[in-house]
Amino acid sequence: MAVGIEARHARDAGASRAARSSVWLRGLLWMLLGSWIGSWLLFALVVAPTAFRVLQTPGAAGALVAPVLDALHLYGAVAGVALAALALALRRGRLRVALPLGMAAACLYSQFGVSAELAEIRPFVFGPQGSEEMAARFNHLHAVSMTIYSVVLTAALVLLGLHVRSDSRGPE
After folding, report:
1. If you compute the radius of gyration of the chain from its CA atoms, what whole number of angstroms results?
2. Which of 1, 76, 91, 157 has the greatest count of CB atoms below 10 A from its CB?
3. Which residues lie closer than 8 Å to 123 by C-beta, 6 or more apart?
4. Within 10 Å of residue 18's Cβ, how many Cβ atoms?
């Protein structure tokens, strides 16, 4: 009889550790996802519009906004990988793992592809040697950047809904 009681206590202790671990993993998931969505909304709704409204030239506003966007892209890449790992650890399913990985890839492409080219041609658009051809290229890349940003933000909101749905089903 004592062996059965010990086995049950060991099983209960293991279940308790698993439950505590799940709480911590879910808390970290919500913190990462909430800060990603919040920071991206703050940038899109407050920082960028304010910079372009308050600063004297579009070039000056871009010089302020670009490094903030760099930080958001890099955070998105790290958060996407971390969110995928957390979804995997919580056994949330393939979509909840794949979606943040795709979002992270989009952030990296935007940072090291689109934003890098924007930074490279910025002096040829806003400087004295600016040309209409470079301005057209800049405008195209800026539109691509805004589209990627919007898609990633929308995907983050979809991911939020997916995780709400998972958590509303009760503990894993």
Report:
1. 22
2. 76
3. 129
4. 12
Length of the chain: 172
Q: Tokens for 153?
A: 């933000």
Rounded distance between C-alpha atoms, residue 68 and residue 48, angstroms: 9
Q: Residue 109: name the closest of 140, 154, 144, 134 by CA.
A: 144
Task: Quote the pTM value.
Answer: 0.83
Number of neighbours of residue 100 by Cβ within 10 angstroms: 28
Domain ranges of the chain: 29-168
Give pLDDT, residue 55: 95
Location of structure tokens 């983050």: 156
Three-state secondary structure readout of the chain? CHHHHHHHHHHHHHHHHHHHHHHHHHHHHHHHHHHHHHHHHHHHHHHHHHHHHHCCCHHHHHHHHHHHHHHHHHHHHHHHHHHHHHHHHCCCCHHHHHHHHHHHHHHHHHHHHHHHHHHHHHHHHHCCCCCHHHHHHHHHHHHHHHHHHHHHHHHHHHHHHHHHHHHHCCCC
Residue 24 φ/ψ, nearest 5 degrees? -65, -45
